[in-house]
Amino acid sequence: MSRVCRPGARRAAAPRRAGFTLLEVLVAAVILAVGLLALGAAEITAAGATGRSRAVSIATAYGEEMIERIRRNRDEVAAYDGFDTQDPTTRPTGAGILQTDYDQWKSRLEQGGQAGLGGARGTVTVLTDSPIPGANAVRVAVSWSDGTDREVVVMSVLFN
Questions:
Q1: 3-state secondary structure the chain
Q2: Among residues 85, 121, 118, which one has the least CA distance to residue 101?
Q3: Torsion angle, CA of 71/73/75/79, rounded to 10 degrees?
Q4: Alpha carbon distance 36, 159 (integer Å)
Q5: What is the pTM of this model?
Q6: Distance, first Cα to last Cα, the chain
Q7: Measured between alpha carbons, how far is 121 from 145 in angstroms, rounded to an integer?
Q8: Whole-number CA gyration radius for the chain
Q9: In what order do the strands lie in the sheet with 121-128?
Q10: How many CA atoms lie less than 13 Å away from 115 in the CB half-sphere?
Q11: In b/e form, how buried is each residue of 105-133, taking b as 16+ CB within 10 angstroms?
Q12: Cα–Cα nearest to 101, from 74, 120, 127
């Protein structure tokens, strides 16, 4: 049996097959690739922020450690003024608590390279009789560079 198409007659549509066309697959692949790239970029940004946060936390701990050393040696608070771990002329002369505090703090800061604090510098500034008589304002700064110069400052007021 043969079919003859009459002029003007409509041809029956071919049955639609299930599945995706090549174009649909390519568009989906591009969308997936862009999404994965964005996810990778977000991961890199988060890892960098985590490293910086860790360095700031460790620098803060080093600053607080020096504040505690000064608090423990409260009778000699003014003698800590001018400590600079990258200036050997500020190292206290003569054996004692001051020299030990300087040496141990300097050593901790030098070891900070493993924590992202490579080349860290610690400084101490003491303002005696400030903000009121009988009190000492202590400022401890820890600074380092990880491509950007960074500094953490810990301040405290110690009473005699």
A1: CCCCCCCCCCCCCCCCCCCCCHHHHHHHHHHHHHHHHHHHHHHHHHHHHHHHHHHHHHHHHHHHHHHHHHHHCHHHHHHHCCCECCCHHHCCCCCCHHHHHHHHHHHHHHHHHHHCCCCCEEEEEEEECCCCCCEEEEEEEEEEECCCEEEEEEEEEEEC
A2: 85
A3: -100
A4: 57
A5: 0.70
A6: 116
A7: 10
A8: 34
A9: 121-128, 135-145, 149-159
A10: 18
A11: bbebbeebeebbbeebbbbbbbeeeeeee
A12: 74
Whether the bond into 15 is cis, omega within 30 of 0: no
| Residue of 57, 76, 66 lying closest to 152 (CA atoms) | 57
Partners of 124 in beta bridges:
140
What per-residue confidence (pLDDT) applies to 108?
86
Q: CB of 66 within 8 A of CB of 122?
A: yes
- pLDDT-derived band at 66 (thresholds 50, 70, 90) equals very high
What would the mean pLDDT of 15-27 be, rounded to a whole number?
81
